[in-house]
């Protein structure tokens, strides 16, 4: 028989509608829709960033310097290259009103700001009017915290300012990245007597350029780097106006797509179960066709075409939902996003989701479809018992593996995170294997449990039912277990991240970080703290900022790739001798009083990641001056304790004469913190205090948004698991009906039969939840340790909720489909089996 004949048979089968395939379609559509929706939102954000690149950046291009303003030569190059230039100084300080103090991120500007976009103020007024005569604008959260109203006065350093308006929109806010304090904007000129922008203070300057229409940004970037890169200059342009935001969006989107693929895997279990159940009902039809001479290939092609058409329908529904739902909710999504976006319908993410759906349908339907061709004509005389082999032909196993490899390959290619993709694939495969083994163990244990559970008929019936050859124990454990595994892993990761930020750190972290302490202020600063019995510890160190430009006379990025240490400037300190807590892992510290060529002590873990070894040379640009030193020791640096940690420490003579300030950490009793801040801020107005608890809360807020996004993805996976569970419960209705009919005939009451059904569901749910908990904890540990690089502790409330959720879900699904079997009349059911 030809393919045309198989197509004719498939067409006739499809006339029966989608009965039996509703769960199939729902699982496939939901998984595809989740991936398509994530991709659509990500594409909308990327389109917004590309369209508004200049507005986000605040100009067509930006040159960034650390701890200094541009030199005359650098400024001359900018003025020659651009039609307009705007100079911005960005730094942290304290806004003071009486005894009230709050951390703020100050943007000191010139009269050319903003080159692109407009600043939103309330009440509405031109920015130059608001900032004239020592005026200032600040975000409402800061003015409310300080109790300021428009017209009130506050201090920055030693200079008083008048609040003229509340800042409602900062056109280049997204390019500023994460900050620990709300924004305040003033004129740079107004800060000349504030003692905040002094030599060695922690600040960075940004020079925004407005270029001629059609300017070649790539060529200008190359020219600027060739001329100024060794001075510590960093270049950004409108092609990627907010690189940090874009990178975060890409990584979050990739992670959510992988969570979506986990949902598709759960849906794939449901798809496979639905096809298996459907073909089981078609066993008689298949056997009849074999009796009439149908070849195995015809049988396979018939149902492959039918399932393929239904798969395309499910994928089309999922793609439509993934495109239309974000578009319909565009105003709401765009309003919630802190960056420009252009939510709409984008073909690329929809095509990506469709490919995932096609491959998932292929991988999870090929195996049961291949088994269908092994049904024999003799099956007609054996009451429909499937005697086909558990394994299909070798060629189908090969194509299943090929489809799985293609699915993983596409996921890695589209997400751009091969490591996370392989971890996810391995985690899903491991969870499926564990759940499959668990299903076999459950059936084996139930068979033996039923034999020894005399005197407890409801339990015995439940165990006997689970161990039956036609029972859906495997489908229930696989579908619900995999969905709960993903949710358990996300719950453990989320709980550990929140715990690391909000619980673990405050127990060991200092009360304050003080920065911008001038050298001549250190004696008085130290005296105030050492005389306070509420202060248990004070650590202080000089601090500069430097950019590692070369490693062993090779550009740093060529030597160590994109390691975070060489991305931007890093804190640099000097020390005559190592502190008491310093652990040298390799090499030796320089001698006290050493004045020879610069020597460097480097963080051991980061050095290993960068491929550094003893006697390697580093060139560090500090305030425009190149300093080349030799690595003479490695030491342990633990950044997780919130203590001062410097990747790079040099001998004092190497940095002699470089202007700098000091940084200090203070450990004090919580009730003494406010008085410490008041005394130090009064005596030294230029000092900036960062309260560690406030910083932790700020980071926790950011993590809350990330956790919410991943939780939504996990919820979609869990919903798919519930759909599969419902499908498994529905598919078992016939078996439950026959079981209830037999038990009624033997004198069992409806109540006892219902209890056996409930016990069966609860036992399967408990097994699925317990295995999901183990898989979720293992997955959470792996991600926390190797991806997030944080400590891991089991979050038991989340863990217990997973097991409880498994029991409740299977119990509800089982009971929901128990009423029809209980209501069926035994005579009608048993007569049909004769």
From TrEMBL:
Membrane topology classification: Multi-pass membrane protein
Domain of life: Bacteria
Pfam families (alphabetical): FtsX, MacB_PCD
Transmembrane segments: 21-41, 252-279, 300-333, 353-372, 393-414, 420-444, 757-783, 795-824
Keyword Transmembrane helix: yes
Compartments reported by the entry: Cell membrane
Protein name in the entry: ABC3 transporter permease protein domain-containing protein
Domain annotation MacB-like periplasmic core: ranges: 25-226
Organism: Ascidiaceihabitans donghaensis
InterPro entries: ABC3_permease_C, MacB_PCD, Membrane_comp_ABC_pdt
